[in-house]
Amino acid sequence: MDNKLCLDVADLPMELRLLLKIIKEDNSGIQLEHVDEAADIDWNLFLDLSMHHRIYPSIYPKLKMLDVKWIPENVMNILGQQYKRNTFHMLHLSAEMEKISQLFSDSKMRLLNLKGPVLASDLYGDLSLRTCGDLDVLVPIQDLDRADQLLLNEGYVKDDYIQTILGDWKWRHHHVTYYHSQKQIKIEIHWRLNPGPGKEPRFDELWERKRRSSLTNSPVYYLGREDLFLFLVSHGARHGWSRLRWLTDIDKILKQKIDWDQLKKILRKYQYYHLGGQALFLSSQLLNSKLAEESKSLVSGHRPKRLAQEAIFYFEEMVNLHTIPVPTNVAVYHKRHLFSLMSLPQKISFILSTLYPFPQDAETLPLPKSIHFLYFPLRPILCIWRKMRKQELRRRIS
């Protein structure tokens, strides 16, 4: 890629730069024995970053094979322990994934695995080379009640964290979580790929293009390659690419045979073309991923680089969006970044969606369900009222 298009990564910590060199060694032929800055590495931070970015399973076997002498023995031992623990966890998840898929199939319900062991197998060729915290599956929205009952019968407990009013859960949210305390497995049941508002492929479309995993004996289905690319891109972008694991997924899928004509049609149709460009730009710049000639139109223009540069903030700050509360400066930046990721139609849809009642409106002014429609005209007043109350509380505290 043209050097004029290089990202500004001057503020990335040295330890993260080393991790990037290790990851992209396959793509660039870098000789790790000649990394000069090794003596100055903060190895505790190196380990923290390896865990934070969830890339320790892929770097450990590489470092062990290369027999790099300048990495302290205790660092290699910790990486090795985590690698083994992850391998057992992935095998555990794989068995449960196959069981759940079979249960849904026996109940005549369609189920698509979004991530998990099938992703590790498809992209990395080995379960042990990728981490996965839980199982993410997609079902048709009309099957949610049946899916709920099926999981409850299996001993899973639903986390009823979603607050909703006037059916906004169907598009404001995109999954619900279940947890099995004995198996210590979490399953997220999705009815959308991403939270709305926004266009995305219907379940029937995804089902038509599905693939069957070779990982298991009984049928386990997951997304077609182009649909998987769209999902990985939208998911990574929505989280600011704050974990390198999501970017290494992009690097791996770029090495597979992609139907770029079909993919670009899908990205355009659902207004993710610019996010595809952001992902390719980041992957090519940070991991030295090779871009197919047919893909280079995605990174043309100023916007892919600008969005990619915005994502560097998440690497510099070691952002973890899943740790609550998120620091104020990160929350403010992330809110602005998410808006910048939207296409113009998506921005319009998002702004209009703020006029739709929120659960907080019902908390501010409880009304009988039969007249909940009044929250539409009342919403501006209720918003002003909440802001006035917050300002009054601040005055009292100060």
Automatic annotation (TrEMBL):
Q: Which InterPro entries match?
A: NTP_transf_5
Write down the Pfam families for this protein, in alphabetical order.
NTP_transf_5
Put simply, this protein is called Nucleotidyltransferase family protein
Q: Report the source organism.
A: Neobacillus novalis
